Amino acid sequence: MRHLLDTNSLSRSDALEVLDVAEDMADTQQREIKKLPTLRGKTVVNLFFEDSTRTRISFEAAAKRLSADVINFSAKGSSVSKGESLQDTAQTLQAMGADAVVIRHGASGAPRTLATSGWITAGVVNAGDGTHEHPTQALLDAFTIRKRRYGADSRGRDLSGLSVTIVGDILHSRVARSNVWLLHALGAEITLVAPPTLVPQDVSTWPVRVMFDLDDAIAAEPDALMVLRIQLERMNGAYFPTEREYSRRWGLDARRLGSLGPDSMVMHPGPMNRGLEISAEAADSPRSTVLDQVTNGVSVRMAVLYLLLAGERDGRHANDEREHAR
Questions:
Q1: Which residue in 177, 183, 181 sits closest to 158, CA to CA?
Q2: CATH code of the domain containing 71
Q3: Tens of pLDDT, residues 76-90
Q4: Is 203 helix (H, G, I), strand (E, B) or coil?
Q5: With 70 as the cut, is the pLDDT of residue 113 above it?
Q6: Rounded to an integer, what distance in angstroms lies between the CA atom of residue 242 and that of residue 296?
Q7: What does the DSSP 8-state code read for residue 228?
Q8: Distance CA 1, CA 18 (A)
Q9: Are 156 and 65 contained in the same domain?
Q10: Is the pLDDT assigned to residue 155 strictly greater than 50?
Q11: Taking the alpha carbons of 304, 305, 308, 311 in that order, is the dihedral positive or negative?
């Protein structure tokens, strides 16, 4: 793996490799000493042009647990806020000897520009770009679904036969887009539920079914119900009458939680707007995987960094390191 820019171009076999390596990494996180020497001497830069808490800390924890050196770069208070271009920033990181750059940017396509521009030789990981994609979030979501459903027997398994319903602000969600392509590649059936104003204009090429009534979608007893955050900061128009009306029609409240099938899990990428798209009862219920997703995010990001930086070495050495991780 040279870069991880999206899930649309990620093959089923590559996705399963990430998930299986993440299983190895998750095993190491149950030990008293969680740190591995795998990426000692490597430098990982977290290059965040947008605010983030979970994703940045998760990548930082993942890199440090693999013994990499970590540089956290925030656009606020940096030369970027003074007008420095992405090219100049990239060339600065190149001069510092960055081996991997984890980038979150408000412009869709910025990670691909960084990866293909020739400004930098480091591996590039997309940590969210505009409304385009957020591939590691989709990978950790798939990992969470697989682990919750199959437990210790999940290695090597895809998601064939499972159904996932994604409800909420599809229009502005890079998480939804990444999940659609990844879950489809892994064999899951995907249903999108949203107000008509929050569905992208043309989803005819997406491998999904679109519904507008959450109660009807819940009646189909999906294996996983993924609730998306309403991204009020990206909305410059009236996409629904009121927050109260949205919550009434498309929010996962206590009544809808009780209507879910006995084996259905409740997911949310965070941060949550409690009382808007999800109730406290749903967020804190035994069905909820919200905290599992945070935990699993570290293991998945460890796997991605490993495959970018250690997986590039000769096969024998990489296999030795994977055995060490087990």
A1: 183
A2: 3.40.50.1370
A3: 655 555 557 899 999
A4: coil
A5: yes
A6: 34
A7: P
A8: 10
A9: no
A10: yes
A11: negative
69 and 183 in a single domain? The answer is no
Between the CA of residue 65 and those of 28, 196, 216, 289, 325, what are the distances in Å?
A: 10, 43, 44, 23, 11
**For residue 65, pLDDT beyond 90:** yes
Is residue 75 assigned to a domain? yes
Confidence band, pLDDT 50/70/90 cuts, at residue 230: confident
Burial 5-42 (b: 16+ CB within 10 A, else e): bbbeebeeeebbbbbbbbbbbbebeeeeeeebebbeeb
Rounded to 5°, angle at Cα 103 from 229 and 184: 55
166 SS3 class: strand
- Give 153's pLDDT tier (boundaries 50, 70, 90): confident
For residue 1, being part of any structural domain is answered with no
C-alpha angle with apex 252: 203 to 165, nearest 5 degrees? Answer: 35
Q: Residue range 41-67: average pLDDT?
A: 95
Between the alpha carbon of residue 284 and those of residues 53, 145, 193, the distances in Å are 20, 17, 22
DSSP 3-state of 76: coil
Report cis status (omega within 30 of 0) of the bond before 271.
Answer: yes
Amino acid at 74: S
> First CA to last CA across the chain, in angstroms?
21
Helices (H), the chain: 12-28, 54-65, 86-96, 110-116, 135-150, 174-185, 214-219, 243-250, 254-259, 280-283, 290-309, 315-325
Contact 174, 133 (CB under 8 A): yes
Range of the domain at 155: 135-290
